[in-house]
Automatic annotation (TrEMBL):
The keyword ATP-binding applies. Residues 334-345 have a biased composition (Basic and acidic residues). InterPro entries: AAA+_ATPase, AAA_N_dom, At3g28540-like_C, ATPase_AAA_core, ATPase_AAA_CS, Mitochondrial_chaperone_BCS1, P-loop_NTPase. This is AAA+ ATPase domain-containing protein. It comes from Anisodus acutangulus. It holds the Pfam family AAA_assoc. Its cofactor is Mg(2+). The lineage of its organism: Eukaryota, Viridiplantae, Streptophyta, Embryophyta, Tracheophyta. It catalyses: ATP + H2O = ADP + phosphate + H(+). Residues 315-345 are annotated as: Disordered. GO terms for molecular function: ATP binding; ATP hydrolysis activity. Keywords: ATP-binding, Coiled coil, Hydrolase, Magnesium, Nucleotide-binding.
Length: 506
């Protein structure tokens, strides 16, 4: 294609010379006729259109260039281009392949053939002999891509193809970027240096849904829900809802709530914003934090029942102010009103502020966002905070059952079956042990021992837990027996003294 373009170029140069002569010799009307004829001739010899995409425009890096670069990287690998460059940026988890200078690559889209070419131009020296340089951040080399195509495909290219290239490039860049975890628990210096309200580090948690030990049906339900959410752009816009979803993870300590968050983040390839409510001064601080979060992210509030007292005040007030049970149930609107009064009074973080954070008008400042609360005590939370629509899915993380144990055995011991499994299954039906404790017993501390030692250790731990549970329940029963005896004795005494009082007054 390059050779034929050179030939066409020299023919065009000849034609241009003729055109220049015509322009000088002939009057306007004749020139007009020649002009239309010229365009036809031009199109006949060179029916191509060229678009240039520069790396920098007006001194700023051009986002489209970088997306094109990424897109062509995938094409060049597929089409075996000869001269490629490999780069790795700080925020990318994999290498990026791109075309070297002067390399060409062809692409096809909806029947249109396109030729991409990479260019590099060194900026000319200025009069003082120094190389021109617009700013420190702009390199002295000017890089660009040109795309050449037949003009009959102009509409396809400008209307659809370039959009397709940018979307593909953006999506590949998103997949390749390093995930981050952000925390709002920053030192004063951090704010002082204007680094924003969130501090980030790379997120490299290995948890996935494959390694998460839980009931397989429940796991599948969660995965399906996440898939539907991530593909739900059109659906959310059709029903007029902000594109976000809330998950409440509840259950005893060590049942995998934090592990589940990591698995969700890895599944969706989202960043995590770990929101520490105790570091938030007031409602407006919470709003600012929200505004600094990006789309495609998970906002997490762990142990929400312990974070701040968002419930106590309101419940006490409600008891004073309301009498009927129905009113007690109707928590939402009154909670917001009461908490907003509280807010005006004290300028603190309130339940109302948090509710606004989750689904107020400002919560729509980013797209594709997941909000997760975790708690060990679901019953302690204000119903308004976790009602469906705010926390769309309530996920119970429970004690380790046999199916979950099998996942842990595969993770930790690399076994899918063993003669000791039935015994363990029986014990797990009788004993409540968290996946965390089960996992601890399955850790191969001495590699020469093999799985048998770990499984024996687990059986021993389960037996001990069973014994303890039996002992505890016996003690509890005994206590209850004693209590009921005491109550009986007290009530007979009360009846007797009531009888003697009656006699006395008679
Ligand atoms: N369901 C699970 N699947 C796989 N590993 C688990 C699971 N639950 C717990 N673990 C293991 O136990 C450790 C502690 O679990 P995790 O921190 O996720 O529990 P948690 O429910 O968040 O606890 P807490 O309520 O105390 O914060 C994890 O590092 C993980 O290795």
């Amino acid at each position: 294609m390059g050779a034929s373009l050179t030939e066409v170029g020299s023919r065009l140069a000849g034609l241009m010379f003729i055109w220049g002569t015509i322009q000088q010799l002939f009057p306007y009307t004749i020139r007009k006729r020649f002009e239309s004829l010229w365009h036809r001739v031009e199109n006949y010899f060179y029916p191509y259109v060229q678009i240039t995409i520069d790396e920098f425009t007006n001194g700023k890096s051009n986002e489209i260039y970088s997306q094109v670069n990424t897109y062509l990287g995938t094409k060049s690998v597929n089409k075996y281009a000869k001269f490629l460059k490999v780069e790795k940026s700080k925020n990318s988890k994999s290498f990026a392949v791109s075309l070297d200078e002067g390399e060409e690559i062809t692409d096809e889209f909806q029947g249109a053939k396109l030729c991409w070419r990479s260019h590099k131009e060194t900026m000319p020296d200025d009069s003082t002999g120094h190389r021109s340089r617009r700013s420190n951040s702009v390199p002295m080399e000017k890089k660009s891509y040109t795309i050449t195509f037949n003009q009959r495909h102009r509409e396809i290219v400008t209307g659809k193809y370039l959009k397709h290239v940018m979307e593909e490039g953006k999506s590949i860049q998103f997949q390749n970027r390093k995930q981050k975890i952000y925390s709002n628990n920053c030192s004063e210096d951090w704010y002082w240096y204007g680094k924003g309200m969130w501090r980030d580090i790379n997120f490299e948690h290995p948890a996935t849904f494959d390694t998460l030990a839980m009931d397989p049906k429940k796991k599948e339900e969660i995965i399906n829900d996440l898939v539907a959410f991530s593909k739900g752009k059109d659906y959310y816009s059709k029903v007029g809802k902000a594109w976000k979803r809330g998950y409440l993870l509840y259950g005893p300590p060590g049942t995998g709530k934090s592990t589940m968050i990591a698995a969700i983040a890895n599944f969706l390839n989202y960043d995590i914003y770990d929101l520490e409510l105790t570091s938030v001064k007031d409602n407006s601080g919470l709003k600012k934090l929200l505004m600094e979060t990006t789309s495609k992210s998970i906002i997490v509030i762990e142990d929400i029942d312990c974070s701040i007292d968002l419930t106590g005040k309101r419940k006490k007030k409600k008891k004073k102010e309301t009498t009927s049970e129905d009113q007690e149930e109707d928590s939402d609107s009154s909670a917001e009103k009461e908490s907003s009064t509280e807010n005006k009074e004290s300028g603190k973080l309130t339940l109302s502020g948090l509710l606004n954070f989750i689904d107020g008008i400002w919560s729509a400042c980013g797209q594709e966002r997941v909000i997760i609360f975790t708690t060990n005590h679901k019953d302690k939370l204000d119903p308004a905070l976790i009602r469906r629509g705010r926390m769309d899915m309530h996920i119970e993380m429970s004690y380790c059952k046999y199916e979950a144990f099998k996942v842990l055995a595969k993770n930790y011991l690399d076994i899918e079956t063993h003669t000791l499994f039935p015994q363990i299954q029986g014990l797990l039906e009788e004993v409540n042990m968290s996946p965390c404790d089960v996992a601890e017993n399955l850790m191969l501390k001495n590699t020469s021992g093999g799985p048998q030692i770990c499984l024996d250790k687990l059986i021993q731990a389960l037996k001990e837990a069973k014994e303890k549970a039996n002992k505890d329940s016996k003690e509890a029963k005994e206590k209850a027996k004693q209590n009921s005896k005491k109550i009986k004795l007290f009530s007979t005494k009360l009846v007797r003294s009531f009888g003697s009082l009656q006699k006395l007054f008679k």
